[in-house]
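Run folding on both entries below.
>entry_1
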Amino acid sequence: MTLITGLDHIQIEAPAGCEDAARTFFGGFLGLPELQKPPVLAARGGVWFALPDGRQLHIGVTKDFVAREKGHPALRCTDLDTFTRQATAFGVPVQTDTELAPLRRVFLTDPWGNRLEVVERPT
Protein backbone atom coordinates (compact mmCIF):
# COMPACT_ATOMS: atom_id res chain seq x y z
CA MET A 1 0.00 0.00 0.00
CA THR A 2 1.32 3.44 -0.95
CA LEU A 3 0.66 6.09 1.69
CA ILE A 4 1.77 9.06 -0.41
CA THR A 5 -0.52 10.17 -3.22
CA GLY A 6 1.60 12.91 -4.75
CA LEU A 7 3.50 16.14 -4.24
CA ASP A 8 1.54 19.11 -2.88
CA HIS A 9 4.13 21.90 -2.75
CA ILE A 10 7.80 22.68 -2.45
CA GLN A 11 9.38 25.37 -0.32
CA ILE A 12 12.47 27.34 -1.19
CA GLU A 13 14.25 29.16 1.61
CA ALA A 14 15.08 32.85 1.32
CA PRO A 15 16.35 35.66 3.55
CA ALA A 16 14.12 38.20 5.30
CA GLY A 17 12.90 40.92 2.96
CA CYS A 18 12.79 38.53 -0.01
CA GLU A 19 9.25 39.30 -1.14
CA ASP A 20 9.90 41.91 -3.86
CA ALA A 21 12.69 39.85 -5.44
CA ALA A 22 10.49 36.73 -5.25
CA ARG A 23 7.66 38.51 -7.04
CA THR A 24 10.03 39.77 -9.76
CA PHE A 25 11.71 36.40 -10.30
CA PHE A 26 8.92 33.87 -9.81
CA GLY A 27 6.03 36.11 -10.83
CA GLY A 28 7.62 38.35 -13.47
CA PHE A 29 10.29 36.12 -15.01
CA LEU A 30 8.69 32.69 -14.56
CA GLY A 31 5.12 33.98 -14.91
CA LEU A 32 3.76 32.15 -11.86
CA PRO A 33 0.63 33.64 -10.28
CA GLU A 34 0.97 34.68 -6.66
CA LEU A 35 -1.27 33.01 -4.10
CA GLN A 36 -2.55 34.69 -0.97
CA LYS A 37 -0.96 33.17 2.10
CA PRO A 38 -3.21 32.30 5.03
CA PRO A 39 -3.22 35.27 7.43
CA VAL A 40 -1.67 33.24 10.24
CA LEU A 41 1.36 32.53 7.99
CA ALA A 42 1.55 35.88 6.18
CA ALA A 43 3.15 37.54 9.21
CA ARG A 44 6.19 35.26 8.76
CA GLY A 45 6.99 36.81 5.38
CA GLY A 46 7.65 35.00 2.15
CA VAL A 47 5.45 34.50 -0.90
CA TRP A 48 3.50 31.59 -2.39
CA PHE A 49 3.04 30.88 -6.09
CA ALA A 50 0.78 28.54 -8.06
CA LEU A 51 2.23 26.04 -10.52
CA PRO A 52 0.19 25.19 -13.64
CA ASP A 53 -0.46 21.62 -12.46
CA GLY A 54 -2.16 22.70 -9.23
CA ARG A 55 0.89 22.31 -7.01
CA GLN A 56 2.48 25.26 -5.25
CA LEU A 57 5.90 26.79 -4.82
CA HIS A 58 6.45 28.52 -1.48
CA ILE A 59 9.22 31.01 -0.75
CA GLY A 60 9.80 30.90 3.00
CA VAL A 61 11.85 33.26 5.13
CA THR A 62 14.62 31.50 7.03
CA LYS A 63 16.65 33.04 9.82
CA ASP A 64 20.38 32.75 9.13
CA PHE A 65 19.65 31.91 5.49
CA VAL A 66 22.20 29.91 3.49
CA ALA A 67 21.63 29.28 -0.23
CA ARG A 68 21.11 25.68 -1.34
CA GLU A 69 23.72 24.85 -3.96
CA LYS A 70 22.92 21.14 -4.43
CA GLY A 71 19.38 20.28 -3.37
CA HIS A 72 16.90 21.93 -5.73
CA PRO A 73 13.46 21.80 -7.28
CA ALA A 74 13.27 20.79 -10.93
CA LEU A 75 10.61 22.74 -12.78
CA ARG A 76 9.18 21.75 -16.17
CA CYS A 77 8.76 23.74 -19.36
CA THR A 78 7.58 22.73 -22.82
CA ASP A 79 10.16 24.73 -24.79
CA LEU A 80 13.62 25.16 -23.29
CA ASP A 81 14.75 27.51 -26.07
CA THR A 82 11.91 29.94 -25.26
CA PHE A 83 12.68 29.60 -21.55
CA THR A 84 16.35 30.41 -22.17
CA ARG A 85 15.45 33.48 -24.26
CA GLN A 86 13.17 34.66 -21.43
CA ALA A 87 16.00 34.16 -18.93
CA THR A 88 18.33 36.22 -21.13
CA ALA A 89 15.71 38.98 -21.41
CA PHE A 90 15.50 39.11 -17.60
CA GLY A 91 19.27 38.98 -17.14
CA VAL A 92 19.15 35.54 -15.53
CA PRO A 93 22.14 33.38 -16.50
CA VAL A 94 21.44 29.72 -17.29
CA GLN A 95 23.87 26.83 -17.50
CA THR A 96 23.00 24.24 -20.13
CA ASP A 97 23.54 20.64 -19.10
CA THR A 98 23.80 17.73 -21.56
CA GLU A 99 24.70 15.01 -19.08
CA LEU A 100 21.28 13.33 -19.43
CA ALA A 101 20.88 13.83 -23.21
CA PRO A 102 18.57 13.55 -24.97
CA LEU A 103 16.81 15.13 -21.96
CA ARG A 104 17.23 18.89 -22.25
CA ARG A 105 17.76 20.87 -19.06
CA VAL A 106 19.36 23.99 -17.64
CA PHE A 107 20.41 25.13 -14.21
CA LEU A 108 20.06 28.62 -12.79
CA THR A 109 19.87 30.31 -9.42
CA ASP A 110 17.10 32.28 -7.80
CA PRO A 111 17.78 35.81 -6.51
CA TRP A 112 19.31 34.40 -3.29
CA GLY A 113 21.62 31.80 -4.85
CA ASN A 114 19.45 28.69 -4.51
CA ARG A 115 19.94 26.20 -7.34
CA LEU A 116 17.00 25.58 -9.69
CA GLU A 117 16.69 23.13 -12.57
CA VAL A 118 14.37 23.51 -15.56
CA VAL A 119 13.66 20.39 -17.61
CA GLU A 120 12.05 20.37 -21.05
CA ARG A 121 9.06 18.02 -21.19
CA PRO A 122 7.09 18.63 -24.39
CA THR A 123 3.36 17.97 -24.07
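>entry_2
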Amino acid sequence: MSGVHSEAIQKQIQQDWANREYIEVITASIKKITDFLNSFDMSCRGRLAGLNEKLTTLERRIEYLEARVSVA
Protein backbone atom coordinates (compact mmCIF):
# COMPACT_ATOMS: atom_id res chain seq x y z
CA MET A 1 0.00 0.00 0.00
CA SER A 2 2.89 2.31 0.74
CA GLY A 3 4.25 1.97 -2.82
CA VAL A 4 0.89 2.92 -4.33
CA HIS A 5 0.60 5.89 -2.00
CA SER A 6 4.16 6.98 -2.86
CA GLU A 7 3.44 6.73 -6.59
CA ALA A 8 0.29 8.80 -6.16
CA ILE A 9 2.24 11.49 -4.32
CA GLN A 10 4.96 11.49 -6.99
CA LYS A 11 2.31 11.84 -9.67
CA GLN A 12 0.76 14.79 -7.81
CA ILE A 13 4.18 16.42 -7.44
CA GLN A 14 4.92 15.95 -11.15
CA GLN A 15 1.50 17.39 -12.07
CA ASP A 16 2.12 20.32 -9.73
CA TRP A 17 5.46 21.08 -11.42
CA ALA A 18 3.87 20.78 -14.85
CA ASN A 19 1.15 23.21 -13.76
CA ARG A 20 3.72 25.63 -12.37
CA GLU A 21 5.72 25.53 -15.61
CA TYR A 22 2.54 26.13 -17.61
CA ILE A 23 1.60 29.08 -15.40
CA GLU A 24 5.12 30.48 -15.78
CA VAL A 25 4.88 30.29 -19.58
CA ILE A 26 1.48 31.98 -19.54
CA THR A 27 2.72 34.67 -17.16
CA ALA A 28 5.77 35.37 -19.33
CA SER A 29 3.55 35.61 -22.40
CA ILE A 30 1.21 38.04 -20.66
CA LYS A 31 4.21 40.17 -19.64
CA LYS A 32 5.47 40.24 -23.25
CA ILE A 33 2.03 41.25 -24.51
CA THR A 34 1.80 43.94 -21.84
CA ASP A 35 5.23 45.31 -22.74
CA PHE A 36 4.27 45.39 -26.42
CA LEU A 37 0.97 47.15 -25.70
CA ASN A 38 2.67 49.73 -23.47
CA SER A 39 5.27 50.38 -26.16
CA PHE A 40 2.57 50.65 -28.81
CA ASP A 41 0.60 53.04 -26.59
CA MET A 42 3.60 55.31 -26.12
CA SER A 43 4.36 55.26 -29.85
CA CYS A 44 0.76 56.13 -30.72
CA ARG A 45 0.63 58.91 -28.16
CA GLY A 46 3.81 60.43 -29.57
CA ARG A 47 2.54 60.27 -33.12
CA LEU A 48 -0.84 61.69 -32.16
CA ALA A 49 0.84 64.53 -30.31
CA GLY A 50 2.86 65.31 -33.46
CA LEU A 51 -0.29 65.28 -35.58
CA ASN A 52 -2.03 67.50 -33.07
CA GLU A 53 0.76 70.05 -33.33
CA LYS A 54 0.56 70.00 -37.13
CA LEU A 55 -3.22 70.42 -37.05
CA THR A 56 -2.93 73.31 -34.61
CA THR A 57 -0.40 75.00 -36.91
CA LEU A 58 -2.70 74.50 -39.91
CA GLU A 59 -5.70 75.85 -38.00
CA ARG A 60 -3.73 78.96 -37.07
CA ARG A 61 -2.67 79.47 -40.69
CA ILE A 62 -6.26 79.11 -41.87
CA GLU A 63 -7.45 81.63 -39.27
CA TYR A 64 -4.71 84.02 -40.37
CA LEU A 65 -5.62 83.61 -44.05
CA GLU A 66 -9.32 84.04 -43.32
CA ALA A 67 -8.58 87.22 -41.38
CA ARG A 68 -6.49 88.61 -44.27
CA VAL A 69 -9.18 87.75 -46.83
CA SER A 70 -11.96 89.36 -44.77
CA VAL A 71 -9.90 92.57 -44.33
CA ALA A 72 -9.18 92.86 -48.04
